[in-house]
Design goal:
The protein is mainly alpha-helical and about 325 residues long. The protein has helices at about 10-15, 15-30, 40-50, 55-75, 80-85, 85-105, 110-115, 120, 130-150, 155-175, 180-185, 185-200, 210-225, 240-260, 260-275, 275-295, 300-330; strands spanning about 5, 205.
Length: about 325
């Protein structure tokens, strides 16, 4: 089994399902209630697993790299590229901001700062739903990278050189610490771009053994880093090395699983279709469920309920937003 080869393109074929897993991992990271808080060693393992789930965001960046390269390669019309992407953020973004402002009692000035991204750039990316602004910046700048990438004679050398220079510059500029939550993830995004290029231009395979090796290595590095046995981080608490290895390997493991289990793939693909809503509304919905149920239900039941109800609510929110967007942008 481990010596088996799988198509490199598997990760591209199951993009929606991989996004679905990424969304579920992020929900677990933010909302999972500890089950073993009183058992020290088991509690540590649980916290490690929960924090590993943060690589769901890295999965988003990886899959975005795959999708954006495919999109521009298929149709190099930048205006259409932007038109297909930016409008879909507006309604979910505004509704999330309004609901958060009401529940968190934001003054008008805070609402404006968070919605416009002013607080993102001047205070901290983590103040309000940072991923949306981050990925919009990536969307905005990607056509420039795409053109440079396409003009390069050796795509492998170009990608490698870009990553090396990017990491070196990020270390030297000594930016605000929270900004590295975005800066490091450009690496996995660029890897996603290169993977999609490789998939479209040559039928390649990858060893299942290598996928599992990358996954185990990512787990080990993350665990050692999390428990402070060793410090592999360069600047920011999110481990560039561990998160990138985990995002890449988990994506292939999910694709392999979905290939063998079509019914699971269908469910995960549906979840992937509402991954934006899952990211934006998970805490607004999840904390309400936790507040209503945690006093009389076992934590494991609460955790399962949170995942199910958040997923179902976001699925229907996605349907509503899609309907409204078609009416507005037709």
């Amino acid at each position: 089994m481990l010596n088996k080869k799988i198509k490199l393109s598997l990760i591209s074929d199951y993009r929606s399902s991989i996004m679905g897993v990424g969304a579920l991992l992020i929900v677990i990271f933010h909302l999972w209630l500890s089950l073993f808080a009183k058992i020290e060693y088991v509690s540590t393992i649980e916290r490690v697993i929960k924090n590993i789930c943060y690589c769901g965001v890295d999965i988003f960046f990886l899959v975005s790299g795959l999708g954006l390269y495919y999109s521009l390669k298929k149709n190099n019309n930048v205006k259409q590229f932007y038109k297909r992407r930016f409008p879909k953020f507006i309604l979910p973004w505004l509704l999330t901001a309004i609901l958060t402002a009401l529940t968190s009692h934001w003054p008008l000035s805070t609402f404006i700062e968070n919605v416009t991204g002013y607080s993102f750039f001047t205070k901290s990316i983590y103040i309000f739903k940072w991923y949306v602004i981050a990925i919009c910046i990536v969307y905005l700048l990607f056509p420039v990278y795409f053109n440079l990438f396409e003009k390069s004679k050796n795509k492998t050398a170009f990608t490698f050189l870009f990553i090396v220079i990017w990491i070196a510059v990020c270390i030297m500029i000594n930016a605000r610490v929270d900004l590295y939550g975005i800066l490091w993830r450009i690496v996995i995004f660029v890897i996603g771009v290169y993977l999609e290029y490789s998939i479209l231009n040559e039928e390649k395979t990858i060893s299942v053994y290598l996928v599992w090796l990358i996954f185990i290595l990512g787990i080990v590095i993350f665990y050692l880093n999390f428990t402070k046995v060793i410090k592999i981080n360069i600047v920011e608490p999110n481990s560039l090395i561990a998160n990138s290895l985990l995002a890449l390997s988990i994506s292939y493991l999910v694709a392999m699983f979905c290939q063998k289990h079509p019914k699971v793939n269908k469910v995960l693909s549906l979840i992937g279709g509402c991954s934006l809503e899952m990211y934006l509304f998970q805490e607004l919905i999840g904390y309400q469920i936790i507040g209503l149920t945690s006093k009389f239900l076992p934590r494991i039941i609460v955790n399962v309920l949170v995942i199910i109800i958040v997923t179902v609510c976001c699925y229907y929110l996605n349907k509503i937003f899609n309907y409204l967007n078609k009416k507005i942008y037709k």
